[in-house]
Amino acid sequence: MSNTISIESELKKSYLEYSLSVIIGRAIPDVRDGLKPVHRRILYAMHDLGNTFNRPYKKSARVVGDVIGKYHPHGDSAVYDALVRMAQDFSMRDPLVDGQGNFGSIDGDAAAAMRYTEARMAKLCGEFLTDIEKNTVDYRPNYDNTLQEPAVLPTKVPNLLLNGTAGIAVGMATNIPPHNLGELIKGTMHLLDNEECTVGDLMQYIKGPDFPTGAMVYGGKGLIDAYHTGRGSIRIRGVVEREERKGNRESIIIREIPYALNKSTLVEKIAQLVNEKKIDGVTDLRDESDRTGIRIVLDLKRGAIADIIINALYKFTPLETSFGINMMAVVGNRPMLLNLKQVLNHFLDHRREVIIRRTKYDKDKAEKRVHVLEGLKIAVDNIDEVVRLIRGSASPEEARNNLIERFELSMVQAKAILDMRLQKLTGLERDKLVEELSELLKMIEYYISILENEEVLKGVIREELQGIYDNYATPRKSELLEQDPSEIDIEDLIADDDAVVTLSRKGYIKRTPLSNYQAQRRGGKGISGVQTGDGDFIQNFLLTTNHQWLLLFTNHGKMFKIKAHQVPEGSRYAKGAHIANLLPLEKEEYVAKAMSLRELSEDRFFLFVTRKGMIKRSSQDLYANCRASGLRAVNLRDGDELLSVMEVSPDADCILATQQGTAIRFNIRDARPMGRAAAGVKGISLREGDRVVSAVVTTEDDRDQLLTISEGGFGKRTGIDQYRIQSRGGKGILNMRLTAKTGKVLGASLVNETDEVILLTSNNKIIRMSVGEITLTRGRATQGVRLVRLDDKGYVVGFDFVRDTEIDDKE
């Protein structure tokens, strides 16, 4: 009868065995030497070959052949890849292999074939194998039971944290960052002297990870969690510098990149974002890296703000990445999640065991030598009798037995006397023998003290650690940040200067210093202004400062909120960048109104006005939390569009001006406060074909005149007392007499004589003049005066004001 086996139990058993094999024998490092089996076998094979740092290089293929032939029966490419990584100074904080030839690059280039490259152990690697021949570690049979291999290396270096590791096993993984050797040694020595110290105490010495590629590291709570629990997350930022170039231009230089980041991939990502205009202001991108280090150069346009572009690099590219720490290691053939103190404790326990085993080995060897020397001393002291006894013996065996019987010697001592050379009989040699015996007795006494006295043992460990520190410690490569990079406010780097933000109907936006515009006399032809494409014109012309919020309301009734300094800077002649680089707009959607505020206040209100004469009053605090994707500011009826948004108080009056020259004035209280998603109420009843072009709100200051501007370049300044207060929803009264020369009404605004108006024409001209130069009319039904002389087919497309300024006239 055949035995029946449950497939379920067999699968469980087989999968468990497979899992343990992967965990212990492949993916997770040993906590003692910080090595996975393949790395340990490579180093041991190199040691076996005598391939040390002070001997000639050997072909990598020779090392790989020994490894797979003797200890690691797997593919040669896997072994060679492991050897290559141990030689890469951008992968290992302190490389364990000294490679000669092409061992790959930080750009992801593969190493040359192993028949071309040569390797030998790095000098530090020698400290991993010191005293391995003194029975300091256990050995186990290799895969075919023909050789013995070490189960662990007797390393003096806390390698698990020094070079870190990454591995994925079955059901678990490990990801340990590299650290600075000097800091690790200091922390380990502190733990050796203060066994009750806390993880926090150790962090005074071990500040944080130290990556071979440098960069800046912010640990914060994530690092504290990782060192206390074994799991946590840190952030790594590349190092960026700024360089001045000719022509008042700047360049951004990337000097260091995050650990394990492919440099060429980073450059490709930056180039893609520049081409897609997600990073604006870059004219050229070059990789000038060489053997001296990384140098990725981004040349900037004149006027581009480097800090904004640097911020975009950190936000949109892998120049800033997260590193998830998971300190999983094998402890006693079991995978365990360890904190910082536990890792160092296991290393110290390993050092204790290695030193004790080495001391026992040295003590036994010394005692055997003492035993031999004591026999030789007896022989020298009785040399005449020894010679006579040997000469009288018929055979070596008889001579040995006679010596044992006569002088009560052991078999080993008798054999040593028989093997002794005649030169040992000289007086000088006899003195050396006595001196050697005396020194060995002292050494044995020292060995016994190590084995019996814990403090002496600690002293040995401390001395060896200090030796590692003195010979191999190097300065940190990674800078530790005390402040989270995400908390660094870019506004701290940008002056809050006055600026003009222009936005065209087709969505091209730019920011220009106000000082670029000069004051002119009324009737002038203007200076050359923004360059727009065919069929495009300036729609929003906003005076603000770099630190203010820009609230951008679209014709579809959505609101977006950005800082003014986020708008790319351009010259007076520049076209600007497309708004799509800043906002996720839909098809046929454009910004209808832009306004700037320092903050959104709950006791202030927005007044929304649509083209079809609808109005809505809502509290500003309803719009404070605006997502990057925008929010719904007002619900619109079919065929309607949002025209304007204004800040209002309940005591103010609102004047709506239409394209066909009518206007209505009503009190804001007529529009009760509504929710964010409401559609609003009627503000004015429009005639056929008419639409609202402007909405203004009276204020408590002295702006008591309404300046109406037509497309033909005419302007009319009228006191608002000429506009009687009506109920909202009416048809309004006459505002401006229109003719073919004046054209339709472009818009209207409240002004006083100290204001200055800036006009923009379809011919890309800008003129700036004092409002006081425009005639104040006594009646409403006038066409006004000419403000700007237009070229053929030219017309005014936009205007805005400089309020209460005193600017010298500059022709």
Helix content: 25-40%
CATH topology of the largest domain: Neuraminidase
> Mean pLDDT, nearest integer?
88
**Structural class by SSE content:** alpha+beta
Distance between the termini: 113 Å
Q: Please identify the top-level CATH class of the largest domain.
A: Mainly Beta
Q: Name the shape in a single word.
A: rod-shaped
> Largest beta sheet, briefly?
5 strands, mixed
**Can you say what the CATH homologous superfamily of the largest domain is?**
DNA gyrase/topoisomerase IV, subunit A, C-terminal
Q: Radius of gyration in whole Å, from Cα?
A: 43 Å
Q: How many beta-strand runs?
A: 42
Strand residue percentage: 25-35%
CATH architecture assignment name of the largest domain: 6 Propeller
| Number of individual domains | 4
Low-confidence stretches: 520-528, 805-811
DSSP helical segment count: 17
Describe what this molecule looks like in 3D:
- By secondary structure, this protein is α+β, with helices and mostly antiparallel strands.
- The protein has four domains: 20-173, Topoisomerase II, domain 5, CATH 3.90.199; 239-318, 2-Layer Sandwich (Gyrase A, domain 2), CATH 3.30.1360; 351-472, Topoisomerase, domain 3 (Orthogonal Bundle); 494-802, 6 Propeller (Neuraminidase), CATH 2.120.10.90.
- It has 17 helices and 42 strands.
- Strands 34, 35, 37, 40 and 41 form a five-stranded mixed sheet that branches.
- The longest helix has 42 residues, at 340-381.
Quick recap of the structure?
This protein is α+β, with helices and mostly antiparallel strands and 811 residues long. The protein is built from 17 helices and 42 strands.
